[in-house]
């Protein structure tokens, strides 16, 4: 666990951008019961946390993708982060729509992108990885060289890790589910015995046996 991972974990917990409720699970649209609620958009309305997040994302880009020429945010959650990090780094940014516009130039990629440019995708959250990989594929089809992804938080779900591997794209997150669960226990957001329940959920979200533990 790095200091950056710990700092971001504490930040996200403090503003309830990541909120654990193992005894009263949330229900996802899929019907799956979840002990965690995540809304990283809340970082945008908390300036001190926002500063940590954007400077942290810039650090990840500089460390892992020093050749980056363009940042591309995912729609919609990654757009603001790509814009702020692009400003901090003096890099151009754009974003990828979930679908092409039905008017004007019918763009799906917004912002100038030249074939062959080295791109880093900026995402707020990675769970199963489906949406961010779709963005990567759209950029590749447009001729971009996608160096990889930076994100605020990742669950580390097996399905997501497998999809990223199959797409041959790497992700670097500011923090992850395991770190946040550990910090949540240390900071008394949850009980220490709840950590194992949270990890059990992460390892197999469709198995609800963790609820009764």
Concise summary:
With 213 residues, this protein is α/β, with parallel strands linked by helices. Helix content is 38%, strand content 22%.
Architecture overview:
- The chain is of the alpha/beta class.
- It has seven helices and ten strands.
- The protein has helices at residues 3-14, 47-64, 79-89, 130-141, 158-166, 177-186, 194-203, and strands spanning 18-20, 26-27, 33-34, 36-38, 70-74, 93-96, 109-110, 118-126, 145-154, 171-176.
- The longest helix has 18 residues, at 47-64.
- The two termini are 26 Å apart.
How would you summarize the topology of this molecule?
Layout: H1 3-14, E1 18-20, E2 26-27, E3 33-34, E4 36-38, H2 47-64, E5 70-74, H3 79-89, E6 93-96, E7 109-110, E8 118-126, H4 130-141, E9 145-154, H5 158-166, E10 171-176, H6 177-186, H7 194-203
Parallel strand pairs: 5-6, 5-8, 8-9, 9-10
Antiparallel strand pairs: 1-4, 2-3, 6-7
Low-confidence stretches: none
* Spatial shape: globular
Q: What portion of the residues fall into strands of 2 or more residues?
A: 15-25%
Q: Please give the count of helices.
A: 7
Q: For the record, give the distance between the C-alpha atoms at the N and C termini, rounded to a whole number.
A: 26 Å
Percent range of helical residues: 25-40%
- Average per-residue pLDDT, rounded, comes to 94
How many β-strands, per DSSP?
10
Largest sheet: 6 strands, mixed
């Amino acid at each position: 666990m790095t200091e950056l991972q710990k700092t971001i974990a504490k930040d996200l917990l403090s503003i309830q951008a990541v909120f654990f409720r193992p005894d009263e699970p949330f229900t996802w649209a899929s019907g799956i019961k979840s002990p965690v609620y995540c809304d990283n958009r809340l970082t945008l309305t908390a300036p001190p946390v926002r500063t940590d997040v954007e400077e942290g994302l810039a650090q990840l880009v500089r460390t892992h993708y020093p050749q980056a020429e363009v940042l591309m945010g995912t729609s919609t959650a990654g757009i603001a982060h790509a814009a702020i990090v692009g400003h901090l780094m003096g890099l151009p940014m754009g974003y990828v729509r979930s679908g092409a516009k039905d008017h004007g130039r019918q763009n799906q990629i917004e912002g100038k992108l030249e074939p062959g440019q080295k791109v880093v995708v900026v995402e707020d959250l990675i769970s199963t990885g489906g949406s961010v990989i779709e963005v990567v594929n759209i950029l590749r089809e447009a001729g971009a060289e996608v160096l990889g992804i930076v994100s605020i938080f990742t669950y580390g779900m097996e399905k997501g890790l497998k999809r990223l591997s199959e797409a041959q794209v790497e992700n670097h997150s500011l923090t992850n589910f395991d770190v946040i669960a550990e910090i949540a226990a240390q900071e008394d957001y949850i009980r220490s015995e709840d950590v194992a329940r949270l990890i059990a959920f992460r390892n197999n979200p469709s198995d609800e046996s963790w609820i009764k533990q």
